[in-house]
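Memo to structure team: turn this sequence into structure tokens by end of day. - J.P.
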Amino acid sequence: MVRFRELVFPHALVGYCLLPDGREYACCASRLSPVGAEFQLNATLVAGDAVTCRLDRVGLLHGHVTAASENGFTMAFALTDARRERLAARIAWLSANADGRVEQRAAPRLVPSRPEVTLVFDDGFPIDGRILNLSPFGAAIALDGRLRPLVGQTVKVGKRYAQVVRILEGGPERGMAVRFRLPFTPETFNPSIVL
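Reply from structure team:
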């Protein structure tokens, strides 16, 4: 177990967690190791709760809550030795491949001719945003500095559903990066695209 604790992927991975009450929540995992991870999500849990999580590029992980806070929890994985070895190999691969962002970074990016977009978060209240750049898989969006979205939160970008994967701070633009649930096809991805 000691060698597993030393293998940590420090960057965010998005996914979903199935909680003991049967509800599923969007989540964001950080400090992923073959032993466990830290999760951020909008739900209340207590130590000992059984949780199943599905993370992008990792798969299903079962375990229990070891510590909880108002913003999330720490989870210890319940894995067979073989599954733990496979997870360790996956974490090593993610670390070796541009921090797990190869697919998105290799994609073409553009600024649409109409960059203004309406965003709708869970509360249903629409706000205005501006697309800084767009790929078939996601977008970087400038927001009013008063809004503080959470990584893992679902948002409707125009007519397209997405998930917040990163908060953009520092520099001249403040906002968020999102990943679309369904990417654009090559035929529809062009500067005249309207979200």
